Amino acid sequence: MDIGIDLDRVRDLIPRYDKPGPRYTSYPTAPVWTEAVGEDDLRAALAERSTSPLAIYVHIPFCRSLCTYCACNREISRDVSVADDYLDRLAVEAERLAAIGPPTRSAAVAVGGGTPTFLDPAQLARMCEILDRHFPALLPAPPDRRTGTSGAGSERSVEVDPRTTSRDQLAVLADHGFDRISLGVQDLSPVVQKAIHRVQSVGETADTANAARELGFASVNFDLIYGLPFQTLASFEKTLDEVLALRPDRIALYSYAHVTWISKQQRGFERKDLPDASRKLAIFSLAIERLCGAGYCYLGLDHFALPGDALCRAADDGSLRRNFMGYTTGGDQDVLALGCSGISELAGLYSQSLRSSVDWAAALDAGRLPTLRGWRLSEDDRRRRWLIQRLMCQNEIWPDGYAERFGETLEARIPDLEEKLAPFLADGVLVTTPSGYRLSAEGRLLMRSVAMAFDAYLGDDGPRFSRTV
Ligand code: SF4
After folding, report:
1. pLDDT grade, residue 462 (50/70/90)?
2. Are the C-beta atoms of 262 and 308 separated by less than 8 Å?
């Protein structure tokens, strides 16, 4: 399928749109949050909840070695016993959080990092037992008498590093209900892998994907990154060939974020080794054409899935959402985070935990909830968040839908909207439709810039964000 991106047009637009800007995994974005919103706010939000099921995110910060492109919260160690202390505190945190508010089940569990498979099989089993004790899985609804189909039960997903993942670890996770797996792949070119300090053979990737499928994982995702040092169109096309031969159910294709003020090890890359904005977009559009041509649906900013996958269904029925884990299917489900640096997203509240595992453990040992910072959403935040979600998940600005939902016109909320959208319309980034505006094929590559038109917090205070291209 050709989705019709005109690369020459995109190249013309780059000088105007390649500026620092958020990825909008939350709104307001994390740099706006404040330490004034903390433990008491998290307690209050949990206490006010109903018994509706939660999504649980568990952060495992440890990795065996450092990938030089990494901007995640991770701690490098080769001593697996550090995870025993971490799990001791995770059990305390889970018990403390579960005791606030009414008992609730988990509709989804996502374990990320760091590297969750840093944990050995016994430690993984212990992590699952902690979750099952405090946030038992939502059971599938009984089969419908007419259709014979069961209602959805809990989904459990895990991020793995194929270089450090064994069949035994996957078997433990499968035994505890994990049915979705995400493999860090990034790029399969040996030249790029050497530069990013992540040497991972096609065989290791294939073995992990195949073992997961044999053990019953229903969905296999690959994470790829474009914009890495020494990437060329030809080298990434070869990576895509090798990836497509393994036919993952989902592919997340992230833009490399060069944020040297956050991730100092990225200073090891020379600027000249990185693809410039024009080559980056050429690689991205090549990937879009190849993946769509191979039958994948293009969802939101950077996700692809085979037809029939839950992400495609969520895009069709309007329940696709974007949060700090990327695109998800859970609609407006509350997320409760466990582990250092985890971000909870409860009705009206963002709350992030302390970033370092040492500080996080010390707060738990002192009897506290280990919060670092957070944000209570105002009504204005909620309305702008809805607009940004709609743009990033459905590629549209929908004035009638906004008015129906919030009882006011879009112009009443953002009086200079016409002025803000005019350049996007003039450049063909947005096109008008009978119900509002839609991102054009080229505009989908620049959607972060359009989303910034709805952001009330953007200032001129330095490079807090990666560039939007
Ligand atoms: S394995 Fe992932 S989290 Fe760990 S250093 Fe590499 S990119 Fe970062």
Report:
1. very low
2. no
Are residues 64 and 179 part of one domain? yes
Q: Dihedral sign, CA of 128, 132, 136, 137?
A: positive
In total, how many domains does the chain have? 2
- What is the rounded distance in angstroms from the CA atom of residue 40 to the CA atom of residue 36? 10
Instruction: Give residue 45's pLDDT.
Output: 96
Examine the fold and report which residue of 330, 350, 376 is the final residue of a domain before the chain moves on.
Answer: 376
446 CA to middle of ligand 1, Å? Answer: 27
Going from the Cα of 198 to the center of ligand 1, the distance in angstroms, rounded, reads 9
Q: Which amino acid is at 188?
A: L
Q: Which residue from 63, 69, 78, 208 has its CB within 8 A of the most atoms of ligand 1, so it is best to mutate?
A: 63
Boundary residue ending a domain (347, 376, 405): 376
User: Does ligand 1 have an atom closer than 6 angstroms to the CB of 67?
Assistant: yes
Range of the domain at 435: 379-454
Residue 445: pLDDT over 90: no
> Residue 414: is its pLDDT beyond 60?
yes
3-class DSSP assignment, residue 468: coil
Contacts with 400 (C-beta within 8 Å, 6 or more apart), sequence order: 435, 436
Identify which of 267, 222, 225 has the alpha carbon closest to the alpha carbon of residue 246: 222
* Domain annotation covers residue 425: yes
Cβ neighbour number for residue 90 with a 10 Å cutoff: 24
Residue 28 has pLDDT above 90, yes or no: yes
Distance of CA 257 to the CA centre of its chain: 14
CA of 317 to the centre of ligand 1 (A): 34
**115 CA to centre of ligand 1 in angstroms:** 7
What pTM was estimated for this model as a whole?
Answer: 0.92
Determine the pLDDT at residue 258.
Answer: 77
Q: 433 CA distance to ligand 1 centroid (A)?
A: 42
Query: Of ligand 1's atoms, which has the minimum distance to the CA of residue 113?
Result: 3
Lowest mean pLDDT among 1-10, 37-46, 83-92, 427-436: 1-10
Dist. CA 113–CA 341, nearest whole Å? 10
CB of 125 within 6 A of ligand 1: the answer is no
What pLDDT, on a 0 to 100 scale, did the predictor assign at position 463? 45
